[in-house]
Each structure stands twice: as structure tokens, then as C-alpha cells.
Structures
1.
Amino acid sequence: MTEVYLRRLSRWQAEQQRAAVADVHVTAYRGAAGAEYRDRQGFLDRFEQHVQRLGFDMMVADAGGLVGCAYGFRVERTGEWWSDFRGELPTDIEELTASGRTFLLAELMVLPAHRRHGVATLMGERLLARLETDLVVAAVDLERPGDGKDGEDSARGGRPANAAQETVRSWGWSKLGLLAPHSPSAVREVWIRRPLR
């Protein structure tokens, strides 16, 4: 495999690279569950909003062109991000959000040819290493049975294997609960990590 270099992008650099990032996004999610909601223009619209958010930070993987991207931003203190959370949100999570010390890992994507080589893990580690937060959260779309490429269910819960779930689980994150569906076919799990100090 070609050597991959990681680099952090400023907000301005991220905006300049948006077309290349959108190309990675479309290719990375092609054929995935919920892909109809990950079209290029939809991503560009979200990215334009995300890059303006407080605490925006971005890491890219480059191998003669972008092959991966990870970015996020601080969750607003109002707690609006949690409005779709199913059930009772733990008090400590509410307090960490209100204190402004919660970071949302909004996107983590790697081109198929560069997966299973540690690129996502390296980007995630580098992105999160310098954060001054007490909580990192991510919402992972769940695949429904039959949505996987091979249609086979995993041993866990009867659902197809989901690369995003496997990634955050392997990083030692904990599942907190579910968010209400943002589409009729998509339910999202919330995973959390409390940074080591």
C-alpha cells in the first residue's frame, strides 16, 4: 500500500479542500446503508455548516490525494444535539455538554482501498489527542438486516457487521444509547469516550 501521510487542516484549508473531501465521502459510503442520505450535495451542505462550528478540527490522510478524513466540533452548550436521544440522558453527560467540554466526532471516512490498514485509527487518535474536552461523542448509523453487502448477520444482535461500530468498539468507546431515526430506515447509536488524562 502507498504510504499515507496525516495532516491537520485549518478551517480555511478545510473549506479549500471541500471538493476533495466530498469525493472521499461519496466513495467511502457508496453501497452503505443510508447511502441515499449521503449524496455529494447533501454532504457539502452539512460540511459548510460544520466547518463554521465552534472548535472545528479536521485531520486528513493523504497518499498522493485524499484517502481519508476525520473531523468534528464542540457540541453546543444548549444540549440541542441530544434532543433526539431516546430515554433519559445521564446527568453527567448533560453537565459536560453544558460546560462546553463535549466534542462530536462528526465524520470519519476512509476510501475502501485504504481500509484495514489503521488509517482510521491513526486519524482518530491524532484528531482527538490535543482536545481539551472531557467527553467525545459519535453517532453511528446502524445497518438493518439485509443491508450489509453480503447480507449475513453478525453474531452480535443479529445485525450485519458495521465498520463504524467495530471501529469505535475497538477504540474502547462505550455505547450510550440510541438517537431517534433521521430517516425511516436509519437508527443511530451514540458512542462515547472519556479522554484519558
Note: The first helix runs from residue 11 to 16.
2.
Amino acid sequence: MDAVDELYEMRAVLEGTAAAMAAKHASPKDLAALARLVAEGEKLDRDPVKLYRHNRELHDAIQVAAHNRYLEKSLSALQDAIALLGPTTLAAKGRFAVAQAEHAAIVQAISQREGEKADRLARAHVLSALETRRVILAKERELEARHEQGGA
């Protein structure tokens, strides 16, 4: 669990930085793409694969809007590590609705060129996902323990 915490904490820092940089550097085309993605999120069904893909697309669009290739590479590496943790946190009951509202607030702050607010909101969004991940992992550990007790 310590490694998961470290991974999400680093992601929170980098995602926050990306949002702040996007608020500073996003082009009108970048802003339009972000607004479109938030609007599309409102219409998604709750298929975990579609939710995951949409989430990735939105986070990637923020990274692109930051216009910093090194930040993009760093975040990409973290996303690869997070993908190894298993199913998306967005499949957890109620998580997508919360994430969608968080995304909308982050994009609004970026569009209004409020870098500090965008940073703060993006960090909080990632740490909210960490809380959901902790619950998922705790349930998995509990199931494994029950399985081991049943098999012993």
C-alpha cells in the first residue's frame, strides 16, 4: 500500500502541475477539446472500459494543453504504473459522478486561467481517486484472506 500511496501522491503533484500549466499555456483549440470532453462525459454509459478510456483522454488533453513534453512523459510513466493496479477506480459505485464533477471544475479553472485553483483541484481529484483505490485494495485483501481461510 505504501507504493500505491507514493504513486498517487506523485501523480497528484504532476497532474496538479499539468493543470496549472494548462491554465497558463492552453490554446483556444486545447480549451475547446477540454470542454468537449467534459460534455461527452455527461453522456457516457457506465461501462468501465468506456469510463477508463474517456478519463484517460481527458487527462491526456490536460497534459497536452500544458505544452510541456517532459511533464507529459513523466505522467505517461505514472499512468503505466497505475494501470498495473487493476480495474479502474471509476467502476466503483458513485466514483464516476464525483470524478465528472471534479473534471468539470478543473477544466473550468483552466479555461478561466486560474492556475493555482486548477492545480489544487487536480491534486484533490487524484487524491480522491487514491481513497477509492484504497477501498478497492482493502476489499481485495479481505477476499483473499477469506479464500485462504476457507482453503486451509
Note: The two ends are 25 Å apart (CA to CA).
